[in-house]
Amino acid sequence: MNRRDFLKATGAATLGTGLLITFPITAQEPEKIPSEVPEYPKDFNAYLRIGPDGRVGCFVGKIEMGQGNMTALAMLAAEELDVPLDQVDMLMGDTDLCPWDGGTWGSLSIWQFGPVLRGAAAEAKAVLLELASGKLGLPPDQLQVKAGVVSALHDAAKRVSYGELVQGKPIERHLTRVKVKPVSGFTLVGKDVPRKDARLKVTGAAQYTADIAPAGLMHACILRPPAHGAKLITADASAAEKLPGVKVIQIGELVATLHARSDQAREALGQIKAKFSPSPSTLDDQTIHQHLLKAAPPAKELAAKGSLAAGEAQSVHRLEATYRDGYVAHAPMEPHTALAQWERGKLTVWASTQAPFLLRSQLAKAQGLTARNVRVITPFLGGGFGGKGSCPQALEAARLAKIAGCPVQVAWSRQEEFFLDSFRPAGIVKIRSGLDKNGRITFWEHQVTSAGESEAETMYDIPHQRITSAGTWMGGGPAGYHPFAIGAWRAPAANTNVFAKESHMDSLAAKAGVDPVEFRLRHLKDPRVVAALKAAGKAFGWIPHAKPSGRGFGVACANHRDTVVAAMAEVAVDKTTGAVKVKRVVMAQDMGVVVNPDGARQQVEGCVVMGLGYGLMEEVKFRNGQILDENFDTYRLPRFSDMPAIETILIPNPDLAAQGGGEPAIVVMGALLANAIHDAIGVRLLQMPMTPERVKAALKA
Amino acid sequence: MAKPIALTLNGKKVSVDAEGSRMLAHILREDLGQTGTKIGCGQGHCGACTVLVDGEAVRSCSTSLASVAGKEVLTIEGLGLPNAPHPVQEAFMAHHAFQCGFCTPGMVLSAYALLKKTPKPDRRQVAEALDGNLCRCGAHVRILTAIEDLATKGGVR
Known about the structure:
The complex is a heterodimer.
Chain A: H1 3-11, E1 13-15, E2 18-20, E3 48-50, E4 56-60, H2 69-81, E5 88-92, H3 108-136, E6 143-146, E7 149-152, E8 155-161, H4 162-166, H5 198-202, E9 218-222, E10 232-236, H6 238-241, E11 247-251, E12 254-259, H7 262-269, E13 273-276, H8 288-294, E14 300-305, H9 308-314, E15 317-325, E16 337-343, E17 346-351, H10 356-367, E18 374-377, H11 392-404, E19 408-411, H12 414-420, E20 427-435, E21 441-449, E22 464-470, H13 494-512, H14 516-523, H15 527-540, E23 553-560, E24 563-573, E25 580-590, H16 597-617, E26 622-623, E27 626-627, E28 645-650, H17 664-667, H18 669-681, H19 692-700
Parallel strand pairs in A: 4-5, 9-19, 17-18, 21-22, 25-28
Antiparallel strand pairs in A: 1-2, 3-4, 6-7, 7-8, 9-12, 10-13, 11-12, 14-22, 15-20, 16-17, 16-19, 20-21, 23-24, 24-25, 26-27
Chain B: E1 5-9, E2 12-16, H1 24-31, E3 50-53, E4 56-59, E5 72-74, H2 76-79, H3 87-94, H4 104-117, H5 123-130, H6 140-152
Parallel strand pairs in B: 1-5
Antiparallel strand pairs in B: 1-2, 3-4, 3-5
């Protein structure tokens, strides 16, 4: 299939009931296969192509997993080019058609990649103006662009459209030092716009990896061990092989059943009689923290200032506490899925991946191919949250498709998703601190183990401090330190560190007898955090009161990679059942320039909801290598009945370039809830999630 | 193979030549090409596979083909199309009541089933009716608002 056929195929794929327009066939593909060099190409033609009808094809290596970058990136391109938003067609995450990208995570799409795309679009517009200048016989400063049409400032009859200028061809001319628009010149950026994926998603027409079914497709189900570390001893597939339409593949530890129907492949897998060795792991979710502390790798110093001993000597009150949290699952609604197809030695893989270019390299390495012979196509993702940076299912599909000689889909079951996920690591944070007689913090020592470094440092003005971290969220530590895979989970490490830091700040405020907002303001230097706290306080109706006030009010704030958030919440705690009901959350966020305000609000709301999950209910249960949570009946996600009212305040800050919005608001949620619970019942919860059982236990203690 | 099983799918009579013990979600997606129905958990815990059978919202991953013989099945494709969305779908669009979109077909159909039976639900009733539909992106508050808003504007009739 050549690229043009592909565009036709994706543009008008007949699946289900009708014609799904995901990418109009008039949009043009870039001329060259993008560079295999892992860097953003300089040539704007790699990102943009203008069709004869004036439609703009925008090609980016980012992927859309719900976070709305398909819309926000289209806005940036439309803004710089001066074309209507609905004239921009996004094609994302296809390694043959899109320029290289490092991966969609870390709230990077807008703040890191946004300037690259804006620069490309601004240069394209400047070149188009020069071309129009030649055509219309007027200097560029006598021309204006509106909705993709260049016209003379004083003679509207003299006009030429982008489409007419370019005729769908790549643009040869290039310019250097083209400036992007100033914020004051924005006409689209900063406005609420409809999401580009809305129509497809609400009608079920949006395609995810599992929805793609080429002729001859076989679904594969793979035999998994019952526990991490268990090894396959024997597998008897004779019963499975007798089932009609079933093909069994058995090579060493790889045992898979294939069938043209996924449920029948799964049924066949159930017929395999397998014996495994027991897992060597003796850890469980109760003993894990002791183990993580005992087996921790050497700690690294992240920051040090003054002398802890001197700070301790100056203090009249000292406070030491240890904060813990467990492993949490990404649990995207769409499990990891991939489809692999081999054609004449070339491998094409459709995958629910957050990193198509990284996956291409991994596939090439695993299959002994050059990257040029591997193509990764990324349909819509049904959520990612960091968990789809790792895509073993794609490697499995590629291997099985090669052996089976037909296209093979591997779609993990929910049980596999819980078993094979790369969890957010459990972590422990120990904080030692002290107050002087005026209620100022004199020293602060933060020692984090296993969770990772991000947000371990304090933003408060504290003269004597030391911050250390042992182990990272990417792994580290001795072999078997974690009994299963761990990895990036929305704002890795930050949720654990901010839970500890902002809980501890509240405890110090209580010790000082000062309102927790006031206590923070006294120790803050960053005017943006001060402004966010004040904005949140105003919207929430915060009336200062020493803790605990009995009102169930909580506050927490953070500066996460230059996006500032301040949150306030009101909770009610049922002392009999231990249940925590979150009534409302106010989140004030300063993220610099806001590209799509409603998109930013959606991300904040998502952070709040996911934060309710890790704060109140989510924790992976495991024992001896076995993952005890296999589905949503025991691993509870936040539901409609758990929802608070959520109010988002976006603080205008046009002087700061657009920062990330996918992560910041989630980092404060743990401490926010802990602080509100403390304010309600006078008891400090030191371990997440703050389940009813833990609330009851804390009340008894 | 047993004889084909007849049912009405999105208003059209269809005959499915498959084992009656197979689950409807797989039949819809793989035998009938209706991929708008999603499979999120396979055990009826997440609601992504929700379809309507004779007007009742059911989990198609846990509903056998045999059990819908002779009945009317409505999937997301039968409710509205990209160029002609249903009012429930329009309400979800207007409020951006989705993010990744994977749970959305199930949400939309659950909302539709609710509004058919209870044209003016309060927020608590909406939350109760949709509590078994999971969303990991956190679009809940928008979904509640979209449904309430539609109900006040005349619902689905």
